[in-house]
Specification:
39% of the residues lie in helices and 15% in strands. By secondary structure, the chain is of the alpha/beta class. It folds into 2 domains: 6-178 and 340-355, 3-Layer(aba) Sandwich (Rossmann fold), CATH 3.40.50.2000; 193-338, Rossmann fold (3-Layer(aba) Sandwich), CATH 3.40.50. It has a 7-stranded parallel β-sheet. Strands 10-9-8-11-12-13 form a 6-stranded parallel β-sheet, sandwiched between helices. α8 (228-235) links the parallel β9 and β10 (243-245). α7 (205-215) packs across α12 (313-324) and α10 packs across α13. The longest helix has 19 residues, at 80-98. The two termini are 14 Å apart. 46% of the residues are buried.
Length: 358
């Protein structure tokens, strides 16, 4: 084990880092902060209001400005949420660049999706590592091209994500996301299917419903509903005795739900950068049938899941019976060997040590 380090973790400010998690990024950040603290590191997590205080939180100062009538009438005015986040990250990076006692660290690990921690990295003396959690975005690419590339060490959550970023970040080191297999425990299985995650169009729960109906198997959906219009128009009308929405669950309840399912359906309609729900399902001993998008093929093997062409609900329905018959023991083994939080933390420690002071 590396010596204890003073680590600053920069989270996304959009949602608090606490259960029930708004999405995979928040769950990942919580697990990373918790595991680093358990390894003996001194962690400060810069995160949004309402985050879990046990993580060593310093709240990002996200505050909406009180605009004058003249400013509001400006037709070019940027969205208030954008401005609030911009100024919060700007203030944080200024504090980190000054290196005052309460903002002095050995390593800064940026897990936000914001451009300023990259664009302002050359002004900060502390080594910075940024994890690429998404496919390329214009904001991050432009920040990298301002000079942030030379001042930052990049990691990517999958080989797929690293390849997507290669034109602007040719040397990103792959550090696969990990999950706490002690918290995601195997369940007994059952007769139903489960879909869990954010119920938004790019995650494709409407296609999971279509596939479950074609297969004639009951489906339970769980997760937050940030896109109310999508939920009300594309999902709620199809809820009935066969298709049930069980709500936004905390991790223990969600783990129990997933462990009691015969199989999990994963239906990304975008290039999934990693697929945390796949790893979580496998840890519960639950096999996965999914669209072959993004990094899912890096996690799933034939003994624990099935992949079909993207957005083909009929093909997904066809493999549901095969998936339900797969070995739950093989699923758990795959999670322990390939999706371990301990392995992820060790690899991040290696990155930190290589960058930081001896």
């Amino acid at each position: 084990m590396t010596r204890p380090l003073r680590v600053a973790l920069i989270a996304s400010a959009r949602y608090p880092i606490r259960e029930p998690f708004a999405g995979g990024l928040e769950a990942h950040t919580w697990a990373l902060a918790s595991a680093l603290r358990q390894r003996g590191h001194h962690v400060t997590l810069f995160a949004g209001e309402g985050s879990d205080p046990s993580l060593g939180i310093r709240e990002l100062p996200v505050a909406r400005a009180d605009f004058s009538p003249a400013a509001r009438s400006d037709v070019s005015m940027t969205a208030p949420t954008f401005l609030a986040e911009h100024h919060a990250y700007l203030q944080l990076m200024i504090e980190l660049s000054q290196g005052e006692e309460n903002c002095s660290f050995d390593i800064i690990h940026n897990n936000s999706l914001h451009y300023l921690p990259i664009a302002m990295a050359p002004a900060v003396r502390t080594p910075i590592v940024t994890t690429l959690h998404t496919p390329p975005t214009p904001w991050l690419e432009s920040a990298i091209q301002t000079g942030g590339h030379t001042a930052v060490q990049y990691t990517a959550v999958s080989a797929c994500t690293a390849r997507a970023w290669a034109p602007v970040v040719p040397d990103a080191r792959v550090v696969l996301n990990g999950i706490d297999t002690e918290r995601w425990q195997p369940g007994p299985g059952g007769e139903d299917l489960v879909w869990f995650g954010r119920l938004v169009p790019e995650k494709g729960p409407h296609l999971a419903i279509e596939a479950a109906r074609k297969a004639g198997v009951r489906l339970r959906l769980a997760g937050p509903t940030p896109d109310t219009e999508y939920f009300e128009t594309a999902l709620r009308p199809f809820l009935d005795d066969q298709i049930e929405y069980v709500g936004h669950l905390g991790r223990s309840d969600l783990s129990r739900l997933v462990g009691q399912a015969a199989a999990a359906i994963v239906t990304p309609c975008w290039d999934e950068p990693y697929g945390l729900v796949v790893a979580e399902a496998l840890a519960c001993g639950t096999p996965v049938c999914a669209f072959d998008r993004g990094a899912l093929s890096e996690i799933l093997t034939p003994d624990c899941g099935r992949l079909v062409p993207q957005t083909d609900a009929a093909a997904l329905a066809d493999v549901i019976p095969q998936t339900m018959a797969l070995s739950r023991r093989a699923c758990r083994d795959r999670a322990e060997q390939h999706c371990s939080l301990d392995v992820m933390i060790t690899r991040y420690e290696e990155v930190y040590t290589a960058m930081g002071p001896a």
